[in-house]
Amino acid sequence: MPLVQIIACSTREGRQGFPVAQWMEAVARKRGDVDVELIDLREVNLPLFDEPKHPRFGDYKHEHTKRWSATIRRGDGFVFVTPEYNNSFPASVKNAIDYLSAEWKYKPATFVSYGGVAAGTRAVQALRPVLNCFQMVSIYEAVNIPFFMKQLKDGQFAPEEGLEDSAKVMLDKLVFWMGRQASLYER
Ligand SMILES: Cc1cc2nc3c(=O)[nH]c(=O)nc-3n(C[C@H](O)[C@H](O)[C@H](O)COP(=O)(O)O)c2cc1C
Asked: Closest Cα to atom 9, ligand 1: which residue?
């Protein structure tokens, strides 16, 4: 089955948003027509980009890059679960993206963002043109969660009514594009 990778972008100690990524993983697993993998950038633990060659050559020096490359290579589509830091995405996700090239190419991606009143939307808007560098399909439908802290209960994300439906529609679009794009890249 095609593989959806859910990428938890916040890496900071004391982060609040990881339960949102776990919720997204659970929603995706209910589909049954895709495999699902939750990738925690905190665990991936990449240093600040340190490869000597441009990633487009795929000639990686460091073991951490080779591991990261193998991880993203097996994905067919991505859900970036991201907070908004200072009106944009966190540096952790830009760093993780910059490490690779062909591994992202042509694959579709969508977003779950969370924050205060703006619901992390500025992080999503800033991520879209980054993904365009790899000719990724940046899917219009995203899930944006305002005041997400109010929906955290005992370390779990307890979404308000309607949010899971939005997530399902978003995943439908992602899976649609995964099917269309799969012939364009090699494993
Ligand atoms: C460095 C930093 C910058 C932030 N900037 C924004 C912002 O621009 N917009 C916003 O809605 N929330 C902002 N916040 C608040 C975050 O939405 C909130 O801290 C959230 O818990 C961050 O996600 P995380 O805990 O999973 O890292 C910021 C938080 C941090 C730590």
From this structure: 84
> How high does pLDDT run on average in the chain?
97
Pick among 3.40.50.360, 3.40.50.1110, 3.90.1150.10, 3.40.50.150: CATH of 3-182: 3.40.50.360
Residue 40 is given by DSSP the state E
Rounded Cα distance, 161 and 178, in Å: 28
Q: Is the dihedral of CA 55, 35, 11, 24 positive or negative?
A: positive
What is the value of pTM for the model shown?
0.98
The pLDDT of residue 187 is above 90: no
**CB-based pocket (< 6 A), ligand 1:** 10, 12, 15-17, 83-87, 115-116, 118
Residue 149 C-alpha to ligand 1 middle, in angstroms?
A: 11
pLDDT at 38: 98
Nearest CA to ligand 1 atom 14: 85
